[in-house]
Write the structure tokens for this entry.
Amino acid sequence: MVDQTSQAAQLNVLVQGKGFPILCLHGHPGHGHSLSVFTQHLSQRFQTIAPDLRGYGKSRTKRSFKMNEHLIDLEALLDRLQIERCLILGWSLGGILALELGLLLPERVSGLILIATAARPRSSHPPISWRDNFYTGLASILNWLKPGWQWNIETFGKRSLYRYLIQQHTRHAYHYLALEALPAYLQTSTAATHALNAALKLGYNRLEELQHIQCPTLVLAGAADRHITPESSLETQRQLSNSYWRCYPNTAHLFPWEIPHQVLSDIDNWIELHPEVVN
């Protein structure tokens, strides 16, 4: 449930294009710009709205908050932009918030595109060692200085925590890691991390409520995702009555950066099959 006594935060937001609105919600860590793989493409035909969630990017906060306050912020954002109805695309944490908005505001949600997410998220991530953190730090610094440097990918990238985030260690994927993932990580507040961890510790599970979501839904997953397993994404899809599922082999949690052309093509095809989500 949403505590309606909480005050909405004024979210920083990136709005691009014209046409039917698509609300694009980032994951953790993240910010609105880290969804450029989607917004740059979709804004050619639609209006994309990519906010920095509370505690992320430029939507700064000086106090602790709870996860459900994101929903208050997002409803206020739709009101501020005078958006009566929209399609919602959510990646990871953003997908969880998309589901919550589908439950909270069904009359305002035309459809859902859920990327690497689940209503009962489960992880299969192994324990993190000091070597993991050491190699990740080195790989990130070198990749920021020289994005997509093959020597860095082979020497440090494939030994770092990136090996759990991507399976295809291409220069293209590492450009996204340098230009979007690292800045997002550095601009994610402690309050945002605490809010997410607190919700996960409570055992977040909305599977039983998904029957109330009737809008068309596209559920996409990476077969080697260790952060939110494809099994938990499939479990979510099976509880949604009007949904389509696709799982991409040899990809992980950041699969839109590994195979962007395939993912965008599948989204375009789904929208073509369900024109009601953008009308």
Observations:
- The chain has a mean pLDDT of 95.
